[in-house]
Automatic annotation (TrEMBL):
Annotated transmembrane regions: none
Domain annotation HTH gntR-type: ranges: 9-77
Residue ranges that the Swiss-Prot or TrEMBL entry lists as coiled coil: none
Keywords from the UniProt entry: DNA-binding, Pyridoxal phosphate, Transcription, Transcription regulation
PANTHER family: HTH-TYPE TRANSCRIPTIONAL REGULATORY PROTEIN GABR
A Pfam family hit: GntR
Protein name from the UniProt record: Bacterial regulatory, gntR family protein
Gene Ontology MF terms: DNA binding; DNA-binding transcription factor activity; pyridoxal phosphate binding
Similarity section: In the C-terminal section; belongs to the class-I pyridoxal-phosphate-dependent aminotransferase family.
Length: 483
C-alpha cells in the first residue's frame, strides 16, 4: 500500500493523516480490510507500536471498524465523501481494437447476469457445486500449495495435468491426444483468443453457428474477424449451407450445439471435416459440456474423427467443475502447436501452477470421476424436474427443445413474437422470477419468443417452485398489451 508520510510531527500522527486521506479520496474504499499491524509496520519501516497507535486513533474517529476474529475494516464516518476529483472521462478509442471492443462488448449489459431481486432465477452458466466437491478441492489445493515449485510454470501447462487431460479425453471424449499436443489455457475464452491470433488476420472470414455462444462470437469480432453465420437445425450446423468461398475458421459446438442443444449427426461431421480439408480451413471445436448426456453414453468429440488434423479442440473445466477455476485446454493440431504455445506465453506466461497441480491430482486420484458421476446423476434429476414441471404446468403454451444433455433448455413461447417474449421476461421479473431471452445468441432475431433456461444450480424443489411461478405468469400476462 502506498502511504506517503508528510514528515510533520509524530510518526503515528503522520500515518493517521495518510490513512485518512486514502479513505477520504476513495483509495481505501469502505469495507476493505486494513493490513495487519505487523505487516504495515514492516512495509513502512516503522515500529509496530506506531501502527497500533495510528489504528487506535482511526478507530476512535470512526474510520475503522473491528470485526471480532476477522480484523479491522475501512469505514466512512458520516456522509459518504466524494473523491477529490471526478473520474476521468473516457477518451476516444485509442486503437482499432478498442473501437471494436466498444462496438461489440458492453460490460454493463452482459447476457445471462443474475436478475436483481429474483427469488428464483433460471440463470445459465451458474455451476452445479456441492459440499463434497468443495472439500475435496480444498484438500487438493492445500496439498498442491505445499509441493508446487514457486517458479514460473511452463507456458504449455504442467506435464502432470497434460497427461491427466489426455487420459480423461481418451476415456470420456474419444479423443486420443498426446501430452505434447495439449496446451493448458484459462478456459474456452482464452482458447478462442489464442486461436484467433494464430490463424486469423483482421478481416478474415469465420463461419459461426446461428445461433451461437455470444462470448466466442464477441472474441472473434473484437479480434477483427468477419463472421458468416450458418444456421443449425436438429442435426447441428447445416453443412450444405457452408459458403462457397471458404472461411479461414469454422466454430462449432458439435456435441451439444449452443444454445439449441442439437447433437451434430455423423453425416454432418464427416461433411464438415471434408469441407475443411478440401478448402484448407481450421475448425474450432468447443466441447464445453459434451460430458453431460442423459439419454445414452456421451458421444465422441468431432476431433476424434479428424484424420487430417484440422480441428483445434477445446475443453473447459468451467462446466464439469466450476468456472472460477479458469482452467481449460486445447488439443492443438501439430501444425499449430508451437504457435499456440508461444501465443499463450506472450499472453500470460502460463496458467497458475497450484491450481494446475491440484487439478492434475484430482483427475488422477479418481476424485474427478466420482464428482462427474454424482453431478451427471443430479443434473439429470434437475433436468427431468424442469421438463416434467413445464410440460405439466405449461405444456400447451410452450415448445421445449429437449437436448438430453447439459445444464440448460431452450423453451419457446408458443404463438408469441419476440416483443411479447421480452415483455413476458419483464413481467416474470416483477414477480420475482429470473428468465433469460434467447435473443443475445442470435445475429438475426428468430421469428418467435424463446428463452434459455439454466437449471444447473437449482435444486429440484426450487425448479418445481420456479416452474409453478412461470406457469402463473403465463396465465396472468396481459399478452394483448404487447404488439
Ligand atoms: C458454449 C460455451 N462454451 C464455453 C463455455 C465456457 O467458457 P470458459 O471455459 O471460458 O469458462 C461456456 C460457458 O458458459 C459456453 O456456454
Amino acid at each position: 500500500m502506498y502511504l506517503p508520510l508528510d514528515g510533520r510531527g509524530p510518526l503515528h500522527g503522520q500515518l493517521v493523516r495518510s490513512l485518512k486521506d486514502a479513505v477520504m479520496t476513495g483509495r481505501l474504499p469502505s469495507g476493505l480490510r486494513f493490513p495487519p499491524t505487523r505487516l504495515l509496520a514492516q512495509q513502512l519501516g516503522v515500529s509496530r507500536n506506531t501502527v497500533l497507535a495510528a489504528y487506535e486513533q482511526l478507530r476512535a474517529e470512526g474510520f475503522m471498524q473491528a470485526r471480532v476474529g476477522s480484523g479491522s475494516y475501512v469505514a466512512m464516518p458520516g456522509a459518504p465523501v466524494q473523491p477529490r476529483s471526478e473520474p476521468p472521462q473516457r477518451v476516444a478509442p485509442q486503437s482499432a481494437y478498442a473501437r471494436r471492443l466498444r462496438r461489440y462488448h458492453d460490460h454493463a449489459h452482459m447476457p445471462g447476469r443474475r436478475v436483481p431481486g429474483a427469488l428464483h432465477s433460471f440463470q445459465y452458466g451458474v455451476p452445479f457445486t456441492n459440499p463434497l466437491l468443495t472439500s475435496a478441492w480444498a484438500r487438493a489445493l492445500s496439498h498442491a500449495a505445499v509441493y508446487t515449485q514457486p517458479h514460473y510454470p511452463t507456458a504449455q501447462g504442467l506435464p502432470a495435468l497434460r497427461v491427466a487431460v489426455c487420459e480423461y479425453l481418451s476415456l470420456r471424449r474419444g479423443v486420443h491426444a498426446r501430452p505434447e499436443d495439449i496446451v493448458i489455457v484459462t478456459g474456452t475464452q482464452q482458447a478462442v483468443s489464442l486461436t484467433a491470433r494464430v490463424v486469423l488476420d483482421e478481416g478474415d472470414e469465420v463461419v459461426i453457428e446461428e445461433p451461437q455462444y455470444f462470448a466466442v462470437r464477441e472474441a472473434l469480432q473484437i479480434h477483427g474477424a468477419r463472421l458468416l453465420p450458418v444456421p443449425v437445425d436438429g442435426e447441428g450446423l447445416c453443412t450444405d449451407l457452408l459458403p462457397e468461398r471458404p472461411p479461414r475458421l469454422i466454430c462449432v459446438t458439435p456435441s451439444h450445439q449452443f444454445p439449441t442443444g442439437a447433437l451434430m449427426s455423423l453425416a454432418r461431421r464427416r461433411a464438415l471435416l471434408d469441407y475443411a480439408c478440401r478448402h484448407d480451413c481450421w475448425i474450432f471445436e468447443d466441447d464445453y459440456d459434451g460430458e453431460f448426456r442423459y439419454d445414452a453414453q456421451p458421444h465422441a468429440a468431432l476431433c476424434g474423427l479428424d484424420d487430417s488434423r484440422r480441428v483445434i479442440y477445446t475443453g473447459t473445466f468451467s462446466k464439469v467443475l466450476f468456472p472460477s477455476l479458469r482452467l481449460g485446454y486445447i488439443v492443438a493440431p501439430p501444425g499449430l502447436r508451437d504457435d499456440l504455445i508461444s501465443a499463450k506465453w506472450v499472453d500470460d506466461f502460463g496458467s497458475p501452477a497450484i491450481e494446475q497441480a491440484a487439478l492434475a491430482h484430482f483427475l488422477a486420484d479418481g476424485g474427478f470421476e466420482r464428482h462427474l458421476r454424482r453431478t451427471a446423476k443430479t443434473l439429470k434429476q434437475r433436468r427431468d424436474a424442469l421438463l416434467g414441471s413445464l410440460r405439466r404446468l405449461a405444456g400447451d403454451a410452450v415448445d421445449i427443445d429437449d437436448s438430453h444433455a447439459g445444464m440448460h433448455l431452450v423453451v419457446w413461447l408458443r404463438d408469441r413474437n419476440v416483443a411479447q417474449g421480452e415483455a413476458f421476461i419483464a413481467f416474470a421479473q416483477s414477480r420475482g422470477l429470473g428468465l433469460y431471452s434467447i435473443l443475445p445468441y442470435y445475429f438475426e432475431p428468430p421469428a418467435r419468443a424463446g428463452l434459455l433456461l439454466g437449471f444447473g444450480a437449482m435444486s429440484v424443489a426450487e425448479i418445481e417452485e420456479a416452474a409453478r411461478v412461470f406457469a402463473v405468469c403465463l396465465g396472468e400476462m396481459d399478452w394483448g398489451s404487447v404488439g
